[in-house]
Amino acid sequence: MEHEHEHGTHAHHQHHSGGPEHRGHGGHEGHQGHGEHQGHGTHADHSAHAGHTPGGKVSWAMAARATLHCLTGCAIGEVLGMIIGTALGWGNVATMILAIILAFFFGYALTLRGILAAGVDFRSAVRVALAADTLSIAVMELVDNGVIALWPGAMDAHLSDPLFWTVLAIALVVAFVLTTPVNKWMIGRGKGHAVVHQYHH
């Protein structure tokens, strides 16, 4: 009887010892399953995030709007520069330099106005405007003033001369056509007015 009792106790001890091992094994599997589930969820989140990565097609309409925005500022600056230069009796070169400076100023000013309206501080807004418009305005001014400089008699035309306004209009149209692809390329890379659009949403 004592032998049977000891044997029973020993069997019971083995069964009891096996319990924690079994539970530990189950816990380990559960932990692995949980880890796999988390990993899968992370991967899904990453895929979803990748779907929102910039790089979609940029429409010509969007690029044209950005170019028109720059064109407006450039046109205001150039006309004002011509008026001031003529009124002060400056030469063609000095007047053109003033017109270019004012074109950059008003081009930046229009962009800056919209960014500040979105609640951005002035220093940050200036950095965004410079990054968004510098290349666009530079290309536009190069083309615009190039047309005026090469057009016979355009440099010597006065504000009251129809030739001045005709050549200016043609120069701005040419600048618009040639600058729009530049803006389209920049927006597609997340540069230029793509940066400005972040502050309008």
Can you walk me through this structure?
It is a single chain. Residues 1-55 have low confidence and may be disordered. Helix 2 packs across helix 4 (122-150) and helix 3 (92-117) packs antiparallel against helix 4 (122-150). The protein is built from 6 helices and no strands. The longest helix has 50 residues, at 2-51. The chain is mainly alpha-helical and 201 residues long. It has helices at 2-51, 60-87, 92-117, 122-150, 162-188, 193-197. It starts with a helix and ends with a helix.
Descriptive key words:
201 residues, mainly alpha, 6 helices, 0% strand, disordered N terminus
Provide a quick synopsis of the model.
Helices cover 82% and strands 0% of the residues. With 201 residues, the protein is mainly α.
Along the chain, the helix and strand elements come as HHHHHH
CA-CA gap between termini:
87 Å
Shape: globular
Largest sheet: none
**Number of helical regions:** 6
Task: Count every beta strand, where a strand is a DSSP E run of 2 or more residues.
Answer: 0
Strand content: under 5%
Task: Look at the structure and give the mean pLDDT.
Answer: 74
What is the rounded Rg?
35 Å
Assign the structural class, choosing from mainly alpha, mainly beta, alpha/beta, alpha+beta, or little secondary structure.
Answer: mainly alpha
Pick out the low-confidence regions.
1-55
Classify the helix fraction into a percent range. over 70%
